[in-house]
Write a structure and sequence with these properties.
Blueprint lengths: L4 H4 L2 H20 L4 H8 L3 H9 L6 H11 L2 H6 L7 H10 L14
Length: 110
């Protein structure tokens, strides 16, 4: 059964995945690794690895993560949505800050 995910993706996401796949292929070639070697190291079929290099969105996230690990980019995956680098999230946090802060009234002992 064919998944509908590729049909639902915006063009920008498709282009980004295609670039990611091309970048992975380039990194593999720079390391003098064949597609068969990569597939073996990832524990997937050669056809699945070729989908990775095409940026196929139907390939599991775990396969992409293992690809990054094998190529030496294992830290990069954990930093993609790092809160410290989330500029939009930081702006939203700043917008939610109150205009002023008032001290709470405390009850006096009778």
């Amino acid at each position: 059964m064919r998944t509908a995910v590729p049909d639902l993706l915006p063009a920008k996401v498709k282009r980004t995945l295609a670039k990611l796949g091309a970048d992975i292929a380039l990194a593999r070639r720079k390391r003098s690794l064949t597609t068969v070697m990569m597939a073996e190291r990832l524990g997937v079929a050669k056809s699945t690895y070729l989908k990775v290099e095409k940026g196929d969105p139907s390939v599991g996230m775990g396969t992409y993560a293992m690809t990054f690990f094998v190529l030496g980019f294992d830290q990069a995956l954990g930093e993609i949505v790092d809160p410290k680098r989330d500029d939009q999230g930081l702006l939203l946090d700043a917008e939610r800050l109150p205009q002023r802060v008032r001290a709470r009234r405390t009850l006096r002992a009778l």
